[in-house]
Amino acid sequence: MGLLVEYGHYILTATVLAVLVHAVSANRKSIRRNGEPLRNPPDTLPLVGNGLKFLQSRWELFSWFDKCQRQFGYETVALRVPTLPPGVLIHDPRNLDFVFKNEGLFTKGDFVKQRSWALFGNGIINADGDFWKLQRKAGSAFLNTANLRVLTEVALPQYLSETVEYLQQNVDKGTVDLQHVFHEITTKLMGKMAYNMEMHADDEFSKCFDYASGATAERFQNPLWRITELFTGSKLRKSIRVIKDFGRRIVTSAVHDRNEQKSKREPDGPSDESSKLDQISGSLIQSLLEAIGNEETVADAALTYLSAGRDTTGQALTWTLYLLLQHPSAVARIRQEVQDLLQSQQQLHPQDSPSHPTTTKPPTTKETTKPFPLGIDPTLLTPAALPYTTAVFHEALRLFPPIPFEIRQTQADTTLPDGTFLPRYSVLVWCLWAMQRSRLTWGADADEFRPERFLVPASREEGEGKGGQEGEEEQEEGKGMKTPRAVRFALGKTSAEFPVFYGGARACLGRKMAEAIAVQVIPTVLVATGVRLEGAWEGGRRSQTSLTLPMEGGLPVLVKK
Ligand code: HEM
């Protein structure tokens, strides 16, 4: 339901007051291009401007952003919402590139921080200056190559084996929610690796976080949230209390781990796979504790990393499967890609080839670890070895970006590359949902699911076409690949054209982690389980209101033999 229906009477009274106050205190400098005011987006009304649009459900809001993009192409248009600073909606990648390159000028500002402070406090998403640097450094240390190897070689295969078992147990037994399945994988992964804690998707904390994320997102659509929350905000306040308590528990548990560690101080010796995971477990929270010291800020930082890592990736996988289950030919191609990989592996190491395609040697020596089901070493499932699967994941990220829109506020007067003048404190919005469907950037088939757009002939020279620009992904030769593949994955777009992982100094730190998870999870769920998934939803799926892109009602599927 849209916000308008829910809080209509509060909003109406307060809007009238706000329009009056706003009119009296209007900023003398105004947003202009070549001395002229910007054009208005469709459906702009006198007095309330675009205010009512923002009170619609977010799904309708995205459609409206998409309509703006179709009507105006790359042109920057005005955004006016009563009570808020004047703003613009940008579409032109040149403007976005300018934003990425001038991150000190375009910050989250008071506009974003006031709304997200309760949830993220001084966590990396909100932090600037030294606090940001410390957290970024701790995150980079956690997401290093060695830790990612433990993720792909030990932790993920272990959790995926449990997923496969769960799916096999549910053959012909009613629907399974794939969104919950993926959320559980990413929650367990982040919980163990980053915090050395056992976490699950249906923990009370997780439910409260989902609620608070939705209610926080509503604050960006409802300019009068401070007033409406006086009447309707008790659930949000309660959820925030549970979340903050959980943040404190993460820190207490980390301090305990640290003290234990100090008292043990075992000499380093040869380690098996499972102890590799134990060794790195909690490394993020330990780095944060070391770097920041203040436990309240460490708790904020921990909660922010948890959200950045698990929600985005779990949701991206959900939308990927949503698309795949509607495109059987893409599933067939993934199947073929995995089979080709198996074959080339068998040619390379005939002595290792499994006698049965769905039984295998376990990837780890830990007793509790169940065998990985694919019949091959899970570390073979890399973006380089599976270019088509990688392309499918990016095509899903294009059509369903886990962070669907972004807001920044200018900290000084500035002029965008297209000539738009923005006075200090102007609000700048871009909607990834719309930009990543732009025909100007993606061509006439921008609305279609076509993973091939991210594939190029493997022989194509580096730097050809758009390759070699920022954002271009080069692939290392995949482990176990006998002969070069006919195609390779190539992003072919700059981060300003395809901003799904953001760009510049504040680009996403977890991109490689998300890609590594995707290329193990997608083929495992589709090929290795020995089961067939069938979509069990009616009509199209929508996103529920949130800071990210959860699927409303989950992704129900039937599991068939
Ligand atoms: C498909 C999955 C993912 C997508 C689409 C994604 C996208 C993004 C985007 C758009 C931002 C900028 C957000 C903002 O400042 O408003 C961001 C930042 C960030 N992401 Fe990701 N992300 C993903 C997965 C991950 C993972 C797995 C991690 C690992 C923990 C991670 C860690 C971060 C961090 C730490 C930042 C803040 C960077 C900074 O401000 O310096 N992300 N991500």
Task: Produce the secondary structure layout.
Elements: H1 3-24, E1 32-33, H2 51-54, H3 58-72, E2 77-79, E3 87-89, H4 93-101, E4 106-107, H5 109-120, H6 129-142, H7 145-169, E5 175-177, H8 178-195, H9 204-221, H10 225-232, H11 234-264, H12 273-280, H13 283-292, H14 295-324, H15 328-348, H16 387-399, E6 405-410, E7 414-415, E8 420-422, E9 427-431, H17 432-435, H18 439-442, E10 455-457, E11 487-489, H19 511-528, E12 532-535, E13 556-560
Parallel strand pairs: 3-9
Antiparallel strand pairs: 1-8, 2-3, 4-6, 5-13, 6-9, 7-8, 10-11, 12-13
Helix pairs in contact: 5-9, 6-13, 7-8, 7-12, 7-19, 8-14, 9-11, 11-14, 13-14, 14-16, 14-19
This protein binds protoporphyrin IX containing FE (HEM).
Residues 124-125, 136, 139, 305, 308-309, 312-313, 316, 397, 402-403, 406, 500-502, 506, 508-510, 513-514 line the site of protoporphyrin IX containing FE.
Describe this structure as you would to a colleague.
Its cofactor is heme. Pfam families: p450. Belongs to the cytochrome P450 family. This is Cytochrome P450. One of its GO terms (molecular function) is iron ion binding. Mean pLDDT is 85; it is low at 23-27, 354-369 and 462-478. The longest helix is centred in the middle third of the chain and has 31 residues, at 234-264. The chain has one domain: Orthogonal Bundle (Cytochrome p450). The chain starts with a helix and ends with a strand. It is globular and about 75 Å long. The protein has 561 residues and is of the alpha+beta class. A hairpin with a 4-residue loop joins β7 and β8 (420-422). α8 packs antiparallel against α14 and α11 (234-264) crosses α14. The chain has a 5-stranded mixed β-sheet, sandwiched between helices. Helices cover 51% and strands 8% of the residues. Residues 124-125, 136, 139, 305, 308-309, 312-313, 316, 397, 402-403, 406, 500-502, 506, 508-510, 513-514 line the site of protoporphyrin IX containing FE (HEM). Residues 124-125, 136, 139, 305, 308-309, 312-313, 316, 397, 402-403, 406, 500-502, 506, 508-510, 513-514 line the site of protoporphyrin IX containing FE.
